[in-house]
């Protein structure tokens, strides 16, 4: 439930979320703007982070569990509200922020597969107004990915969600999970080949971090770290590179439309392929096809 008395609520971007296939929500990100007003928020089984984007400081009164906080929220200020705890807020001018909701079950799952000696129920420490450069950086990356033509990469979002979850577990739990479970070194050659084969066979599909980690029976966090140690790039970067490479082959050796090629390579649209293709190659798919088909048959 999210009840706000200001009726002129403006949602600048649609809600988007990643689901790692276990029947519960992983992360939801929303950029919102509200005029001056007040309201009570209760997000059930989701922990909520709010990252201020307001260019001017916003005076905010907040009340949660018999504690009151009044302060000027500046761009980059963050609040953290644990699951199942209502929060009342009143603000005296237009507010603008990124809201990140993290499923409590997802956070517990990340803790259990990443750390040793995890308590049955994690207790998140509520925070009214803090600065945290890592949360800010991840929040802005999530926002950028989810609002970019609404074609966010599932693997990239999963990776950011897991990094954010581990950071929260390390810094904002009352009983800090003990050390990270040990997985020294990178992937073995056999493990790496298994993962690479899977990626190449499923380039046209929405590959999730869970899909790759489960192939090897290790946690998402450890898989990402070990994959990068073995290949030099993060899993989502490798996936993008391979999709662009396949697009190059199809542009050079077939007469298929660029729209069809985009879908065959796992991109959501012609524009999504064009944007990623240009970032990696410095040219557009159309220009690449014209140059390479001409040179091939010259």
Description of the structure:
Helix content is 43%, strand content 23%. The protein is α+β, with helices and mostly antiparallel strands and 298 residues long. The N and C termini lie far apart (64 Å). The protein folds into 3 domains: 2-171, Jelly Rolls (Sandwich); 182-232; 244-297, Arc Repressor Mutant, subunit A.
Radius of gyration: 22 Å
- Described by the principal axes of the CA atoms, the overall outline is flat
Helix content: 40-55%
Q: Can you count the helices?
A: 10
In CATH terms, the superfamily of the largest domain is Jelly Rolls
The tally of strands reads: 14
Q: Tell me what the CATH architecture of the largest domain is.
A: Sandwich
Unreliable spans are 3-16, 20-24
In CATH, the topology of the largest domain is named Jelly Rolls
Question: In the residues, how many domains can be counted?
Answer: 3
Average the pLDDT over all residues and give the rounded result.
Answer: 83
**Can you tell me the CATH class of the largest domain?**
Mainly Beta
Query: How can the largest sheet be summarized?
Result: 7 strands, antiparallel
